[in-house]
Design a protein that fits this description.
single chain; alpha/beta; two-stranded antiparallel sheet; 21% helix
Length: 167
């Protein structure tokens, strides 16, 4: 018999550049998803900062960023895996990342492999942001997650459409 698996997708409305407000929204939605029985909650790309490429350098997270403590606590207390988006600075440069907070208190990091070559979407203030590839470096971190007796991979945006990615 296959184990029951429950994944929630949380569509946030990020406050551009306001990490604290966005963290509060993530915590609220994580609790709601846990109440509904979700084992994993997936948030949008760059959800902790908003898709604000021009602010990414200033708002970038570190690999073990203390701003993640609240989410790590929720994941542990609610026995849920949270996948949240943020710009992240590593030795190799600035990346689009997905932090994976697990019920056992660990935090893994996925980095987007395939960056957008151009930008056609205007930000909240009507300004067209720079292309991802002008600010971020392609990543190579690809941790797997386990839940409900199965293993799954993480992907961000353009990564999902690449046939090579699931392999």
């Amino acid at each position: 018999m296959t184990a029951i698996r429950s994944i929630a997708v949380a569509q946030t409305v990020a406050v551009p550049g306001d990490v604290d407000a966005n963290l509060d929204q993530h915590v609220l939605l994580a609790h709601q998803a846990a109440e509904a029985g979700a084992q994993v909650v997936v948030f949008p790309e760059l959800s902790l900062t908003g898709y604000e490429i021009g602010l990414a350098q200033r708002l970038a997270f570190a690999r073990h960023d203390p701003r993640l403590a609240l989410l790590i606590g929720v994941a542990s207390a609610r026995a849920i895996t949270l996948i949240v988006g943020a710009p992240v600075r590593l030795d190799s440069g600035l990346h689009i990342g997905a932090f994976i907070a697990t019920p056992d208190g660990r935090v893994e990091l996925y980095t987007k492999h395939h960056l957008g070559a151009f930008s056609s979407a205007a930000s909240c203030d009507g300004v067209v942001p720079p292309a991802e590839a002008t600010v971020f470096r392609p990543g190579d971190r690809n941790p797997l997650i386990s839940f409900g007796g199965t293993t799954a991979a993480v992907a961000i945006c353009a990564d999902t459409g690449r046939p090579s990615h699931p392999r």
